[in-house]
Amino acid sequence: MHVRLVIADCQVDYAGRLSAHLPMAKRLIIVKADGSVSVHADDRAYKPLNWMSAPCRLTITEPDADSAELGVTQLWEVRSREGDTLQIRLGEVHLDSDHTFGVDPGLQKDGVEAHLQTLLAEHPSTFGDGWQLVKREYYTPIGPVDLLLRDHNGGHVAVEVKRRGEIDGVEQLTRYLDLMNRDPQLAPVQGVFAAQQIKPQAATLAADRGISCRVIDYDLLRGMDNADERLF
Amino acid sequence: MHVRLVIADCQVDYAGRLSAHLPMAKRLIIVKADGSVSVHADDRAYKPLNWMSAPCRLTITEPDADSAELGVTQLWEVRSREGDTLQIRLGEVHLDSDHTFGVDPGLQKDGVEAHLQTLLAEHPSTFGDGWQLVKREYYTPIGPVDLLLRDHNGGHVAVEVKRRGEIDGVEQLTRYLDLMNRDPQLAPVQGVFAAQQIKPQAATLAADRGISCRVIDYDLLRGMDNADERLF
DNA sequence: GTGTACATATCGCAT
DNA sequence: ATGCGATGTGTACAC
User: Which residues of B are less than 8 Å from A47 in CB distance?
Assistant: First the structure.
């Protein structure tokens, strides 16, 4: 269990879902404890130029005489189970450093769509007075509807929740509505597209499909949630 | 222009599109020449636990007396233009290494969808005898159709090309067809969904929409292309 | 294992 | 800048 950092001149060839080639240049190579290998340039945030995800196997060999003559010092071959290969020819090595980490305590996240969905499930009145939750993650054969509600008249409403409301969210909800409206137990089902922010094109498409849009104030909703907790 | 590698015990807090917290543990921190910062554990291939993409600004300060007492040696704050912040509190530093890279010659790719599209544009007879190319990347107000063809009867055909044919590709083509069929210059327009592999659910949806599916043999097509070249 | 949706998605291109 | 589509997307979760 360790992380190996290598900075070296290297030439890289990937063959798998596509073919890619990197000419010889100085780069950073990271080998992680899970076996994954990534080759980084000095830009592009965290995205490597080339990589192999775990599970995979790294084999390091000596270069043949011809390659050695041309300055190749090590030959790395990384191979995945599916047969994808990443070949790295190392030239001059500027750093080769090995480090052992402990088990990472892991990441704590907040504010993602799941939380938004939870809050809205707990406060269906956000959508209208007297509206009630039927089911979170209501399963249809083509995927889960985020929220199934009943409005003040008892009519079904399918809600699609997004952080940012874009066109494919509307498409998604449209597919669900088409399907649900064929079910006599549910029909007629209205659609509501709920998001912290809704792009104009998504709003236009929603309107065209008879779907109503709701912009959600996440902080306000979280505030309501806290207020509720204080009452108990 | 340099890459800085730090291995250190650190505690991380991110506030931006979401909030996230990492308890103190030994990790790898990479600062790239573009200013981007990423914090890695020893697993998850190339994805960091936390990061900040360029453009952003890194400020390093001394910890206050209280923090220093608790073992904090450096306080890093990374701030983006949008106000997202990444705070890193460093404890013991195990490695701090700085390296200058040259300009990377860059990645050469082959085999992606673009190539598939090019090959199909050059060989419209793949779809049927006598079929001809009208336009690659035919622009509609809602996006470009990959290929616009005419079949042996002169009727228009819109082709959506994918490496892997999934449900959203069918949705995309459906939107284009709806729009194009409102244009009396083009209507009636048939739809063809072409991919190296088509998922059953996508095929079902396509059939339901009256769109025909074509599974493309990339190697065969590339072979045809090479054969053509040899003729000249 | 397949299917589906989410992601601080990232990235590139075209308008 | 914004919209839109592709990605060797990766990842989690339900069936």
Answer: 46
